[in-house]
User: Which sequence fits this backbone?
């Protein structure tokens, strides 16, 4: 049993980083633009399908395909920002409505383009590492490393670069940041685009792990928002910790309780934590 | 003005139609041609137009002194019960269609059944959905004809498959990982009862539709040290389950009564045994049966593309043979509109097409089928089984 628990804790950590990268996008967008972008799951889907298309149809190697796939998600994010989100800045309800509308549009487009039939991309990396009795697929370890790396790089960039400090300043006091020379419009657009690129990156790695369906984004944005709330909205490291916590809760919950309700286990955990710490695990940061 | 236009239209129509114009019989099809569970519906939607085209190109068919051609309306439900309900309503109420093929998905059937039952005696619904078994032959459900073998019972295909599995692998304990929906629950009910009867130990876990990461539940099932994994039922889930089972070293032996050979073939170097029920394993059958070879050639000619060998095994009798059977039944009944007579003629018929098809007393089909056994490296053996 110990081996089972250890194995699934590790698996939960790996799966949780995928929730974490979406949560990071949610928390960044909310911190800078004041909207909860529920359409981030759709940008993840765009990244995933673009990767599948570039690998299986164009014939690009996976590492090469990652770049245009992430770029396509970012470009779609830029278009969405310029056409929609820039009119809903700091308006939570309008932003929410626009992002929900965008989900319908993007999903319908994906259905028309690729149908609802799942796409199973060619395997990128096969085999598993065996540690004691625990078997960890190499592709999951690679995805974990890349996702965690990007999350830490984002954290480092925000903490140590001028842009990062400007973003923090803007999140705390937009007027003061503007007076200090921060170009607010550019900052907000940049954060929306970067969040979409992060989601696209998560989608590209998702394509290497699982089969794809147009509705895949819906589940992941829910997990991403859960993770962001659990970690504490505004906390970058909280996003990762929140995602990993939900991933581990689901994995361990599935061992001891019926698997059919695995999505509920993370949510129950979030509710319990929020009862004791309403601002989330790292809610006081920023 | 409106009256004048009406007369003009009628006159134009009279001139447009030749005197000996043929009548048409409208048939419909409601299947998931796309979507996570499209593996059954897609192939059915591929075969049906070929049969219609062949019948029409041969000049149609004669019932009484009239010659008829078929007019097919085939829609994609995407496996969405709401979409299927709308399409069926349109077919029955607007288009005047009285012969509908499909559905293959139980959740779709369960949703459309109350509405369809209002038209009992006025149309036929010929599909393979597992849940149709509970309704076929039941009072008020003459419209239901099930076009798929039943799993359970002394001669059920599931029974025969489990016997083969035990014989080939010596399996004593089976782990079941089944989708948590209408079709999955029926599947779990059928096979848990069957395993109990055969004194085979089993573990059952359900998963939500849309689940992608099965690692935790696979690890949990593997901890019970079963001999075989029995996943169900759509390829969308099975592809992820088989991959994660082999990558995580949880399972290398699989037993499928729903789902295709495709996920097994993609992981063929990591699998020890992969047993799968298929109505017809075309790669082997076309070498020995001229009718199958002709169907494959006809497919290539009609669609101008290669035959989809990976999808085709889940093609069922209602993808092709049933259209010819329906025509024969109309001829025998001497009517294209007397639904009761046509149904009687259909279910009392034994037809020798791509399959040998007959019906039990309720209106559930009995067809010969294949069990494919794939071993490591993709080595395939096929066992053709007579259902009765």
Assistant:
């Amino acid at each position: 049993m110990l081996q089972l628990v250890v194995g699934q804790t590790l698996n939960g950590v790996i799966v949780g980083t995928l929730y974490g990268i979406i949560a990071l996008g949610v928390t960044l967008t909310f911190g800078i633009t004041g909207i909860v972008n529920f359409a981030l799951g759709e940008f993840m889907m765009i990244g995933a399908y673009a990767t599948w298309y570039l690998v299986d149809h164009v014939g690009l190697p996976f590492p090469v395909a990652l770049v245009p796939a992430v770029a396509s998600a970012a470009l779609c994010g830029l278009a969405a920002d310029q056409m929609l989100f820039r009119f809903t800045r700091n308006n939570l309800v309008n932003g929410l409505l626009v992002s929900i509308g965008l989900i319908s549009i993007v999903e319908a487009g994906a259905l028309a383009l690729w149908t609802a039939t799942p796409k199973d991309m060619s395997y990128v990396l096969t085999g598993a590492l065996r540690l004691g009795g625990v078997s960890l697929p190499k592709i999951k370890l690679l995805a974990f490393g890349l996702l965690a790396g990007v999350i830490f790089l984002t954290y480092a960039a925000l903490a140590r670069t001028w842009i990062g400090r400007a973003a923090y300043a803007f999140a705390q006091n937009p007027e003061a940041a503007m007076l200090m020379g921060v170009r607010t419009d550019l900052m907000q657009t940049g954060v929306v685009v970067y969040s979409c690129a992060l989601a696209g990156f998560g989608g590209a790695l998702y394509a290497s792990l699982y089969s794809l369906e147009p509705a895949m984004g819906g589940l992941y944005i829910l997990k991403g928002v859960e993770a962001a709330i659990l970690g504490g909205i505004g906390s970058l490291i909280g996003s990762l910790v929140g995602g990993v916590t939900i991933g581990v809760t689901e994995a361990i919950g599935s061992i001891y309780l019926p698997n059919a309700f695995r999505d509920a286990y993370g949510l129950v955990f979030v509710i319990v934590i929020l009862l004791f710490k309403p601002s989330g695990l790292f809610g006081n940061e920023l | 003005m409106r009256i004048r236009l009406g007369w003009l239209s009628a006159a134009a129509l009279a001139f447009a139609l030749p005197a000996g114009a043929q009548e048409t019989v409208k048939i419909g099809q409601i299947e998931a041609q796309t979507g996570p569970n499209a593996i059954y519906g897609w192939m059915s939607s591929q075969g049906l137009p070929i049969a219609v085209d062949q019948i029409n190109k041969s000049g149609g068919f004669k019932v009484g002194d009239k010659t008829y051609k078929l007019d097919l309306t085939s829609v994609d439900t995407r496996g969405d019960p709401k979409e299927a309900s709308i399409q069926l309503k349109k077919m029955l109420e607007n288009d005047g269609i009285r012969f509908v093929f499909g559905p293959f998905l139980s959740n779709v059937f369960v949703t459309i059944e109350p509405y369809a039952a209002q038209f009992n005696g006025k149309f036929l619904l010929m599909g393979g959905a597992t849940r149709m078994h509970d309704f076929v032959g039941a009072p008020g459900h003459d419209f239901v004809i099930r076009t798929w073998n039943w799993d359970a019972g002394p001669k059920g295909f599931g029974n025969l498959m489990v016997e083969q599995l035990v014989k080939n692998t010596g399996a004593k304990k089976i782990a079941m990982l089944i989708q948590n929906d209408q079709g999955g629950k029926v599947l779990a009910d059928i096979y848990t009862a069957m395993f109990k009867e055969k004194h085979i130990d089993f573990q059952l876990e359900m998963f939500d539709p849309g689940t992608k990461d099965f690692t935790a539940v696979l690890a949990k099932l593997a901890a019970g040290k079963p001999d075989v994994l029995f996943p169900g039922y759509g390829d969308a889930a099975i592809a992820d389950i088989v991959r994660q089972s082999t990558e995580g070293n949880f399972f290398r032996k699989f037993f499928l009564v729903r789902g295709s050979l495709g996920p097994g073939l993609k992981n063929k170097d990591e699998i020890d045994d992969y047993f799968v029920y298929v109505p017809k394993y075309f790669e082997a059958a076309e070498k020995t049966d001229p009718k199958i070879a002709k169907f494959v050639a006809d497919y290539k000619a009609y669609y101008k593309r290669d035959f989809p060998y990976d999808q085709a095994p889940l093609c069922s009798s209602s993808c092709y043979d049933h259209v010819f059977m329906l025509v024969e039944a109309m001829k025998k009944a001497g009517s294209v509109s007397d639904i009761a007579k046509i149904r009687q003629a259909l279910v009392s018929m034994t037809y020798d097409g791509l399959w040998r098809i007959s019906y039990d007393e309720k209106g559930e089909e009995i067809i010969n089928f294949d069990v494919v056994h794939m071993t490591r490296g993709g080595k395939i053996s096929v066992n053709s089984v007579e259902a009765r």
Summary: The CA atoms of residues 174 and 202 of chain B lie 5 Å apart.
